Amino acid sequence: MNARLLRTFVDTVQEEGSIPIVVFFPSKQELQRPQSTSPVGIQVAQAAGVAYLDSTPCFSAIPLSDLYMPENHYTLRGNAALATCVAAVLNKELTSLDSPNN
What we know:
Blueprint: H1 3-15, E1 23-24, H2 28-32, H3 40-48, E2 53-54, H4 76-98
Parallel strand pairs: 1-2
Helix pairs in contact: 1-3
């Protein structure tokens, strides 16, 4: 994924009358060690000037050992935390679209 491709995706979705939703999903390695710089996925979104949801905080209350299956896919618990977190943000954002001030 590069910034140009991401920007093209967002522009195309908006031109079609839809709302693009870009979510950064941290890898196990990105959660294991503190980063001195932002993860590459976040850097790409920022370079493209694309709004994104960083889902990293969604996992803060769960031990790393409970987040990933052996092949680095999220576990049921990890996916549930992610779904709850993303749903809350989406509900808030979509509700703001319905408000009379928009």
